[in-house]
Amino acid sequence: KSWYVIAALAVLLAAIFSGWYYWGILQEEKAYYDRKLKEGRELFSKRDPGSQILFREALNAAATKEEEAAAKINLGTSYFLTNRVEAVRILKEVAADGSYPSFYRAGAINYILNYYSASEDAEFMMGVVFTGDPWSSFLQHPTSRSRHNIYLAMRRGYEWSTKLFSTFYAEYWVADWYA
Fold first, then answer.
1. Structure pTM?
2. What is the DSSP string of the chain?
3. CA 20 to 30 Å from 128, out of 4, 10, 90, 100?
């Protein structure tokens, strides 16, 4: 009988410890992640590159692949303020990582491609964005910097995005191409 009492107490103590760990430590870590992400977004909305530090802290505190992908997307987009090449590198990582939720991968593709809509920088698109797999395969003519070639590559990129996860912006872009 005493064996059953000891086993029951051990199970009870393990349950209490597990609950304490989950509700105490894990919830504190989640709150830290959420706080860093929110503070980073506030700085980014003011176009403050200091947001990169906060997004990197959120990335380091990420407990799930979803949190990691969200922090990386925020970090990547914040680098458009200071280092476009680094921004694209980080966002390409998210797009290529099959362990991230499709929603985030599609979002990363959209952010990369949206950069051309804002800048119309053909040299950057050809020299940075449409390089490496699968990005270079989107180009019809690998050396042509014509608008048609870039728009075709962007359409193919948005089609990849919609295959991962349908977003209004990507669907609109693809539909506009075929209209």
1. 0.82
2. -HHHHHHHHHHHHHHHHHHHIIIIIIHHHHHHHHHHHHHHHHHHHTT-TTHHHHHHHHHHH--SHHHHHHHHHHHHHHGGGT-HHHHHHHHHHHHH-TTS-HHHHHHHHHHHHHHHHHH--HHHIIIIIT-STTGGGG-SSTT---HHHHHHHHHHHHHHHHHH---HHHHHHHHHHH-
3. 100
